[in-house]
From TrEMBL:
One of its GO terms (molecular function) is transmembrane transporter activity. It is a multi-pass membrane protein. This is TRAP transporter large permease protein. Residues 8-422 form the TRAP C4-dicarboxylate transport system permease DctM subunit domain. It is found in: Cell inner membrane. Signal peptide: none annotated. The keyword Translocase does not apply. The chain crosses the membrane at residues 6-35, 56-76, 96-125, 137-164, 170-195, 216-240, 246-265, 277-295, 319-349, 361-382, 402-427. Belongs to the TRAP transporter large permease family. The lineage of its organism: Bacteria, Pseudomonadati, Pseudomonadota, Alphaproteobacteria, Rhodobacterales. It comes from Rhodovulum kholense. The complex comprises the extracytoplasmic solute receptor protein and the two transmembrane proteins.
Length: 431
């Protein structure tokens, strides 16, 4: 059994040296196949990549990324925050709670957490600091709520998990609604309790309350994007269109909103958006393809079966095994990016989840909830650095300290949905 050890050592070594993750996965997987099957490995590897990427559902990935990038180039993020702030004017801590609401809605628009942090954070943090909010509350609210984009559909991680596991992307989208809304509610509730106990962290708003006309006008800058999301997701949920078809409609609609409604698109900016979308999509697809090589090697040497046999043979109850797995995934998420974590751990852990009698749809939802914690914890938490990029008045260390209480809330919600699987499965079952 020395070969699997060498493969893992090569994988960790390449990642440690800063090699691209797709190269580390592909090279270590190819080494393993070569040690197991000799020269035939060089035939297995291309077949693995083609078999993984030859999926109609994966077409939704670049299209949803394009849709999110097009809408990120508009003032939708700013308009969402302003609308939420006006409607929650009466509530202490309303700006911070408005940030959670705006991030949740922008997550439904973009599907990418970093985009939400940049779009909402660039306006929300300066507004909160100007009104006397504590720096920790402002930073923590933006970073943690930006992660909601990973769970609230259309979610890029759900598309990737669906491609790797074979679970319906449409069912995953439906399954993410209840956990996403529950997590947003938990973050808002934490902010409310926090500012009630520490009123100095969120002073009450001064000045006259907004008029009804102003509240309605605030919705004028966001209804186009929200209507687009409702149509796209509604088409998927009703079975009118596949996720890939709906994503194509969403990308076309986002183009029209950016070009005709907000008039923020020029030929140059559109070319930049296309180039950025292609770059991100190709990066993710490369990781998915090369991870299949690594996964095929693990299956060849029966790693998933061995892990399943060893863990199910223990005297631990099922819930204890799940808690251990969740802790391991949280720790891995602190070191590995979200895409890599999905494509590497799913082939290993999914057989165990099935052996324990759990639904693979539920596991996909739980895995993405883990990723929400991963993107807000150092050293690989991209949301931390995204906020630092748009709010240079905050240091990375300050942002990390600010987000820790919000991470605790996220972990509590994760454990609730781990221990009570029916909470995330009843809506997909209903629809």
């Amino acid at each position: 059994m020395i070969e699997p050890v060498l493969v893992v050592v090569l994988l960790i070594g390449l990642i440690g040296m800063g090699a691209p993750i797709f190269l580390a996965l592909g090279a270590s997987g190819l080494l393993g196949l070569w040690m197991a099957r000799g020269p035939l490995a060089f035939f297995f590897a291309p077949t693995s990549i083609f078999g993984q990427l030859n999926s109609f559902e994966l077409i939704a990935l670049p299209l949803f990324i394009l849709m999110g990038n097009l809408l990120s180039a508009t003032p939708v993020g700013t308009n969402l925050f302003r609308a939420a702030a006006i409607w929650l004017y009466w509530l202490r801590g309303g700006l911070a709670i408005a940030t959670v609401g705006a991030s949740a809605l922008f997550g439904a628009v973009s599907g990418v957490s970093v985009a939400g942090v940049a779009a909402v954070g660039s306006i929300a943090v300066p507004q909160m600091l100007e009104r006397g909010y504590s720096r920790g509350l402002a930073a923590g609210a933006v970073v943690s709520s930006g992660a909601l984009a990973m769970l609230i559909p259309p979610s890029v991680p759900f598309i990737i998990y669906g491609a790797v596991s074979g679970v319906s992307v449409g069912a995953l989208f439906v399954g993410g609604i209840v956990p996403g809304l529950a997590l947003a509610g938990a973050l808002a509730l934490y902010i409310y309790i926090r500012v009630r106990r520490h009123p100095d962290q969120a002073p009450r708003e001064s000045g006259p309350p907004p008029r009804a006309g102003e509240m309605l006008r605030a919705l004028g800058g966001i209804w186009h994007a929200l209507l687009l999301v409702v149509i796209v997701l509604g088409a998927i949920y009703k079975g009118i269109a596949t996720p890939s078809e709906a994503a194509a409609f969403g990308a076309a609609g986002a183009f029209l909103i950016a070009a005709l409604v907000f008039r923020t698109l020029s030929l140059r900016s559109f070319a930049q958006i296309l180039a950025s979308s292609v770059k991100v999509s190709c990066t993710i697809l490369l990781i998915i393809g090369c991870a299949k090589i690594f996964g095929d090697y693990l299956n060849l040497v029966r790693v998933p079966e061995i892990v399943t046999e060893r863990l199910t043979a223990t005297s631990l109850p099922d819930w204890a095994i799940l808690v251990v797995l969740m802790l391991a995934l949280v720790l891995l998420g602190m070191l590995v990016d979200a895409v890599s974590l999905i494509v590497v751990t799913t082939p290993i852990l999914l057989p165990l989840i099935l052996a324990l009698g759990y639904d693979p749809l539920w596991f996909g939802i739980i895995l993405v909830m883990n990723l929400e914690i991963a993107v807000v914890t150092p050293p690989v938490g991209l949301n931390l650095y995204a906020l630092r990029g748009v709010c240079p008045m905050l240091s990375v260390e300050e942002i990390v300290r600010a987000v820790l209480p919000f991470v605790a809330v996220q972990f509590v919600m994760l454990m609730i949905f781990v221990l009570f699987p029916g909470l995330s499965l009843w809506l997909p079952g209903l629809l």
